[in-house]
Amino acid sequence: MKHIRNFCIIAHIDHGKSTLADRLLEHTKTIGERDMMNQVLDDMDLEREKGITIKSHAIQINYKHKGQEYVLNLIDTPGHVDFSYEVSRALAACEGALLLVDASQGIQAQTISNLYLAIDNNLEIIPVINKIDMEGAMIPEVTDQIVELIGCKPEEILLASGKSGIGIEEILTAIIERIPSPKGDETGPLQALIFDSVFNSFRGILVYYRILNGSLKKGDKIQFVSTGQEYFADEVGVLKLTMTPKQEVKCGDVGYIITGIKVAKEVKVGDTITLANNPAPMIKGFEEVKPMVFAGIFPVNTDEFEELRDCMEKLQLNDASLTFELETSQALGFGFRCGFLGLLHMEIIQERLEREFNQTVITTVPNVSFIAYSSKGDKLTVNNPTEMPDPTKLSRIEEPFIRAQIITLPDYIGNIMTLCLGKRGILINQSYLTPTRVELVFEMPLTEIVFDFYDKLKSQTRGYASFDYSPIGYRDADIVKMDILLNNEKVDALSALIHRGRAADFGRKLCEKLKELLPKQQFQIAIQAAIGAKVIARENISAMRKDVTAKCYGGDISRKRKLLEKQKEGKKRMRQIGNVEVPQEAFLAVLKLD
Amino acid sequence: MVSAICTEAALQQSYIQEPVDTIYFGGGTPSLLSPAELEQILQQVFKQFTVNTDAEITLEANPDDISTEKLTYWKNAGINRLSIGIQSFFAEDLQWMNRAHTADQAKACIQLAQQAGFNNITIDLIYGTPTLTDEKWQQNVATAVSLNIPHISCYALTVEPKTALDKMITLHKMENVNSETQSRQFTQLMQWADDAGFEHYEISNFAKPGFRSRHNSSYWQGKHYLGLGPSAHSFNGISRQWNIANNALYLKSIEGNVLPVEVETLTNTQQLNEYIMIRLRTMEGLSLNEIAARWDINAVHKLRAGAEKYLKNDMMVLNNNSLILTRNGRLFADGIAADLFC
C-alpha cells in the first residue's frame, strides 16, 4: 500500500488534461507509442470532439522512482458541470490531485468548484501550470492566481507542457513524493467505493472502484450496500491500457469487477462494495443521482418508436443517469419523457442517439422538475408541462434553485449582471480572485439556465466566462403553463412551464419563430401563445395564394414529378396539428430562440 | 446541327411504332431555320416514320421572325399550326421581358399569318409580371380574342433559380413576383376565357372547340413521343429519356452514331404519380376508372380518400368517376397532386 498513489487531474475543458495524461502514460511506458491514440482516456468519439470526458475512467501506471516500483492510479473525472456528483466520487477515491491550469487562460469556474471538492475530500493538491510554451502564456499571473487560491508557495507550482512533454518527470516525482499513500485496514472487511461503471457489450457492466479497506478476491460473494444486491466476483483486476485480470485487488488499489450485471441502473456511483458474509458499512457521501432537466424525446417518424425504445434501453445500459418513461403526445405520438443531469447531458444523449444509434429524434422544450402543492396540501412532482394541475387547484409551486458561480474578466461584470439579474438571479457574492479575475456568485432558478443561458453567457463575455452550478433546493415560484395554439389547436409538444414575468416575451419570440418555420398553407394560420384562456402573443401566416407551375409539357414531366415526390416526402415528416402541417424544425424552434 | 438531327431520326427509327399524328418544331427558335433546313428535317421524318396525312405540324415562331415570305415557305413545307410567342401586346411589358419584338409586331404578325392562311394559331401570353396591371392583362386577353385566335397558352411569370431575373430580385433591383397578383390574374383569365368561348382544357391552355393542341394533348394523355435534338425528351410508356443538353457533345455523339441519352425507367408507382400529376391539370381530370384498369383498385381507394378534403373545400369535384379540379383547385394543382401521390 505504501507504494500506491491514487490521483486525478482537475482541469477546465481544453486546459490540456487529456494531452497531459497521454504524456504520463507514454513516459511511463504504460502504453507504447504504437498504441498511442491521441488522448487515450477519452475513448468515445463524441468526447473527443467535444473535448470533454463524459464518463470517467481509470488507468494504472507502473513507475520506478529511486529504485522503487510504484503503482500510480490515474482516475479520470468527467469535465462538465452536469456531472459534479460523479466528479466528487472520483475525487473521493484519490489521495491527491493535479490542479492543471492553462498558462494563457488562468483559473476557470469549473476548476475552482472541482478544486473545492478536492479540498473537501482532503486531497493533496499539486498545482501545475500547463501549456507554458504557448504564445500568450502568463506564467506570473497564473502563479499568483494559484497561490491566492490554494495558499501554496510559488515554488510548489510545477511548469509543464503536455504537448511538448516539458515537466512530465517532475510531475511524476511530485505525485510520488507529495501525495500520501492510501491508508486502510488491509485485513478488515471489504469496503470499496464505486466511482464509475461502464457497459461492455461482451462482458456486461464493468464496475470501477477504489478499495478503502480489506481486499477483493476473484470468486468472492459481494454485496452493494445501497441496493443490498449480491453478486459473485466473476473477474477482478486492474486497469492497464486493457483490463488485466488478477486473483486479488488489494487495499488502497483501484480496480474493476465483473459480476454479470447487465444493466447500469443496478450500479450506483458512490455506492459501497462489501463482502456478503463479512459486511462493512456504507462509505459516507453516497447520494442517489436525480435528474435535473426533463424533455420529451420522440422519433421523427411515429413508426420508429419501437426502434427508439430499443436504443434508449441500450443507452441506459451504459448511462445510468439517464432516466426515461413512456410519454404520449397528441402532436408527436409515442415517445419518452427523459430525465437528464443537465442540459449538456441532454445534448449528449441526443447526439449519441443520432450518431451511435442512427436515430433522428425530436426533443421537446426542456423543463426542470417543479413541485406543485394542491389547495388540499398534496405534493406533486411535475416533470412535464402536461402534468401541471389546473392553476385553480393549486396553492403554490416551487422550483429548483442553483448556486451559480461565474468567473470572468472585470470588463464583463456588467453584462453578466444584466444577464443573470434578467434571469431572476440574486447576486450573493462578488470577489476579485486576482485583479483581473472576478468571481460572481448568484442564486438563480435552474429553469432560467435551461433555455439559452449558456449561449448568452458566451456571447455576452466573448467566451471569457466560465460557469459552474450546484443545486441548493426548492423555492416558491410564480410558474405558469404557457401553451402554443395553431388555429386554436393546442400543440402539447410546445407547451412550456415558465415564470409568469417571462411568459409574454417568451411567447412572442416563440410565435415569431414559428411564423418563420411553418410553411404557408391553403388557409390562414393563427399562431397563439396563451396562458390558460388568455392569449399573450399572436402571429398570423397568410394563406398561400397559388401553388401551381405554369408548364407541364414533354420535357417537364420527369423533373416535375421528382419535385412533387420530394415535396410529398417532406410532408410525410411533418406532423399534423388540427389542420396545420408542422415541420420538425418547429418543435426544435423553442431551443433556438434568441 | 440539322444533319445531326436527321441522323438521330434514323437512329431512333424504331422508337416509335405507331403512326405519327403530330410534329412539333419547338424549344429554341425554329423560326430561324432556313426553308431548306426545315424541308430537310421534315423529309427525313416522313422517310423514317409513318406520318398520318392529317398530322398536326406546329412551328414555334417569334413575332419578329414572321414575314410573308417565311409564312409562305412554312405553309408550302406542310406546317399547319403556328405557335407565336407574343407574351404581351404592350411595349412596356415586352421591354421588361427583354423581348426582341415590338407591340406593333405582336399584332401585325398574327394578321400576317392569318392572311397567309394560318387559322390554327396559338399565342403565348404572360401574366403576373410587375409591369402588367389588371387592366392591361384584360386588354391582352381581349386583343387575342378580337384577333380571332383559337388557342391561347397563358403562363404566370416564374422566377427560376440562378437566372438573371432571380439575381435581380435577390439584389432588390427588381420587385419579386407577387403571388396574390398572379392568383388574381389567373382567376380573371379563367372567367374571361370562359366568356369568350374557350375551353380551359389544361392549367395553362385555352382552346376554342376543335382547336386544342393535339401535340400537347398527347403528352397529357400518356401517348408515346420522340424528341430529336439536344435536350429533347422522349417517352415510350415505360421509360423517359432525354438527350444531352450540350450542343457540341450532342453533335459529337451523333457523329459516332451513338444516342446521347439518359434513360429513366419508371416504376409502376412513378407511372401512376405522373398520371395523377398530369391529369389533374386537365379539364377531364383524374379518371378513377382508368386508374382501376391500369393500376389497381387500392390506388383508387387511396386517391378517393385523399381527395375527400379537396372535395369538401371546393377544390375538386367528382364527375363521371373522375376527380376534376375546380377553378379554385387549379390554383393549387401542384400541392394537391403531391398530396395525392402514391
TrEMBL record, chain A:
Residue stretches spanning the membrane: none
Function comment: Required for accurate and efficient protein synthesis under certain stress conditions. May act as a fidelity factor of the translation reaction, by catalyzing a one-codon backward translocation of tRNAs on improperly translocated ribosomes. Back-translocation proceeds from a post-translocation (POST) complex to a pre-translocation (PRE) complex, thus giving elongation factor G a second chance to translocate the tRNAs correctly. Binds to ribosomes in a GTP-dependent manner.
Family: Belongs to the GTP-binding elongation factor family. LepA subfamily. Belongs to the TRAFAC class translation factor GTPase superfamily. Classic translation factor GTPase family. LepA subfamily.
Pfam families: EFG_C (PF00679), GTP_EFTU (PF00009), GTP_EFTU_D2 (PF03144), LepA_C (PF06421)
Subcellular location, principal: membrane
GO terms of biological process kind: positive regulation of translation
Subcellular location per the Swiss-Prot or TrEMBL entry: Cell membrane
Name this polypeptide is given: Elongation factor 4
Catalytic activity: GTP + H2O = GDP + phosphate + H(+)
Membrane topology: Peripheral membrane protein
SUPFAM superfamilies on file: EF-G C-terminal domain-like, P-loop containing nucleoside triphosphate hydrolases
InterPro entries found in the cross-reference section: EF-4, EFG_III/V, EFG_V-like, EFTu-like_2, LepA_C_sf, LepA_CTD, LepA_IV, P-loop_NTPase
Species per Swiss-Prot/TrEMBL record: Limnovirga soli
Alphabetized GO MF terms: GTP binding; GTPase activity; ribosome binding; translation elongation factor activity
Keywords: Cell membrane, Elongation factor, GTP-binding, Hydrolase, Membrane, Nucleotide-binding, Protein biosynthesis
CDD domains per UniProt: EF4_II (cd03699), EF4_III (cd16260), LepA (cd01890), lepA_C (cd03709)
A cellular component annotation (GO) from this entry: plasma membrane
Domain Tr-type G: 2-183
Binding site for GTP: D14, H15, G16, K17, S18, T19, N130, K131, I132, D133
Annotated EC: 3.6.5.n1
